[in-house]
Structure formats: C-alpha cells, structure tokens
Amino acid sequence: MKTFNSGRKVQETQYMSFHPTPINRPWKLENMELLQLLGQADRELGRIDMYSDYIPNIDLFIQMHVLKEATQSSRIEGTQTNVDEALRAKEDVAFNKRDDWEEVQNYVAAMNRAISRLKTIPFSSRLIRETHQTLMQGVRGRDKLPGEFRQSQNWIGGATINDAVFVPPVYTKIPELIADLEEFVHNEKDYFPELLKAALVHYQFETIHPFLDGNGRVGRLMITLYLVSKGILKQPILYLSDFFERNRNHYYDNLMRVREQNDLQQWFKFFLVGAIETAKGGIVTFDNILKLQKKVDEQIGTLGSRAGNAQIVLHALYRHPVINAAEVGKIAKISAASAYKLVADLEKLKILREITGGKRGRTYLFDSYVKFFR
Predict the structure, then answer these.
(1) pLDDT digits 0-9 by tens, 153-195
(2) Is the pTM of this model over 0.90?
(3) In CATH, what number is assigned to the domain containing residue 226?
(4) Domain C-terminal end among 285, 314, 329
C-alpha cells in the first residue's frame, strides 16, 4: 500500500482524463492505526449484525433504515426531501419538491430490488446496471442511459470539462475497469478484509464514474449491497450516507486525495470511522426502538377489546409510519366508524399525531418512531 499508485492523467484531444490503476491484485496491510480501526469496525459491525438475529420482526424496521439512507444519499447530490416528506404520498408533497421526492422513492425501490436480486444473482456489473436503471427510471437523468454504461465523457464539478474538478476515464476504458472491479470483488485467492474491499470498491467505482448520472447514489448503495452479499451483514441495516452527508467535504476531499496523492490509507481510515460511528448509531437506534415498542405495547394494552386491532395497525406503522383512517380500516379489517374510533384512541395515547391540519383527508404520523430516523 505504501507504493500504491492511483492512476495517471491521460491527454485526450481537448482535455486530460484520469485512468485509475486496476485494483484486482494482492494487497498488504502494514499501518497499525488502520489495523486497529479495522478491528474496531469489525467488532461494531458484529454487534449490530447480532441485533438482526435477536430483534423480533426486524423486517418491520428495515424499510425506515432504507428510507433514511435514501434521503441522506440523495441529499449529498442536492435533493432536499427529508424523511417526513418522503413518507408522504406524492399528492401531499409540494409540487416544487416532487422531483426530489421521486428520486428518494426510486432510491428505496432500487435498494429493495437489489437486495432481493442478491438471492438469485451475485454482486456484479449486471446487478449494478439493474440498480442504476431502477434509480433513474422516470426522474431527472432518465434521458441519460439508465442501466447502461456511458458512451461519452462526463466530469465532476465545473461548468465545462476544461474547469472540472475531476475528469473520469474515457468511456472506452469502462468495460475493462468494471471487469477488474468485479474480479476484485470475487477474488478469494488474495485475502483482503471485506470492509476495506467495500471501501476500495466504492472509491474505484466513483473514480470510474461509469454512468452519465447517478454514480454517487449507486456507489453508496453498493456499500450495503457488498456487505450483505459477503455475509458481513445478514440484513441491510448499515448505511454510511448519513455519515458521508454530515462530513460531505471530508468525503469528497478524501476521495480526491487518493487520486491526487495516492493516499489510499486516509480514505480507508475515513471509511472505517464512518462504519464504526454508523454501527454504534444503529445500535442506539435499535435500543430506542425496543424501548418504544415496550412502552407502546403497554399503552395499547389499556384499550381493552380494541387492543388486538391496535397491535395490527402498529405493525404496519413500524414499516410505514404514516397512515389515515381508511388505511387503518383496511389493515385491521374493521368498519370506517371503528377505524375512526381506533385512530382517536391512538391519537389520545400520543402514538399518532395528525400532520395535515385539516378536517378532511387527515393523515397521521407515528412521530415518536420517526424521530429516530431524522
């Protein structure tokens, strides 16, 4: 790693592009600080992964983790939708925010589909392209070859390619670079810690920048997909975009530092610190959810004969914590009158909070739950 060379600049007709060095080769770890961080990150990931074994109905909570990841990863790219807005129906979102809202929904769909596809296909360029297609479907960038690697030059930053912050390799190099990345992912001959492989795959993907748009979101989504595909996580419960968003300048600076100064170790340290902080934060979130579950179950127990229906509704709220009376009736299979009474009960217990402010078409939020993901 001390002799690592990130790549070279190549003179094209009217600009300089950066061609990264292939990564599928043996790697040697010697930095003690990095090894210590790696050990700590492995322990924290082991702890949060343990929660996926012991938390009842963990599937109920995963969608909120995905939604938070979607909003934070999209926020890095400039969208403004927050978790509360992302939970709402499209017609309840301000018209000028609907493009942002749709991009977040696409991210959620892309993550869910990719996790499902991992059951039938490996982590691969095929999976990456399918994920990109879902991400870009019908939103800004839909005209930029969704699901296909670019056939022209792109760049990062700057109004034109001549004042760009970074110019990725020419498109003709993409197939061989992606093939190298895929071989590295599945290289079992040369051992390299999986967390560092995830970090290196993310760096290399962002450097290749194989799509015309959506590279950042796909690259961050790939981190979780990789960890799940390798069995490091049993469930998709670790997402680094919140850490990257809170440290956005450091995130971009450390990626550029690799390209300009060959300093891969600093990127690894930043990535591992993010994994450690995110895993610790995830454990706190799960602890808070378990405490909330206990408190709410006790409250629902006071509803007598309506407690059973309230519990059914609550299960739905953990998966999607926004609801209206009609949905309550449908979920619990009760009459409209009974649904309104149940909503009133949950509102009185402060489990639900009305968020529209109107007398008709009222919508309610499971606020004490959502706050853990803001």
Answers:
(1) 999 998 899 999 999 999 999 999 999 999 999 999 999 999 9
(2) yes
(3) 1.10.3290.10
(4) 285
